[in-house]
Amino acid sequence: MLESTKEAVKAMGLDIEVGYVTDMEEITKYGVMSMPVLVVNEKVASMAKVLKAAEVEKLLRKYE
What we know:
By secondary structure, the protein is an alpha+beta fold. The protein contains three helices and two strands; from the N terminus they run ααββα. A two-stranded antiparallel ribbon has the order 1-2. The relative contact order is 0.24.
């Protein structure tokens, strides 16, 4: 999902940092139990689903 997210960010022309977190302590701060997770502006946008770039882009547009 990392690559899909990077692809969506690039397609949208956004200048934002895309991070990849593996620290379980950090992940549990968001109250999630299933991965992968997409977090946008400190809010869980998607959980337990591997998204394609178009799906990530659709979610990101909700946070513009």
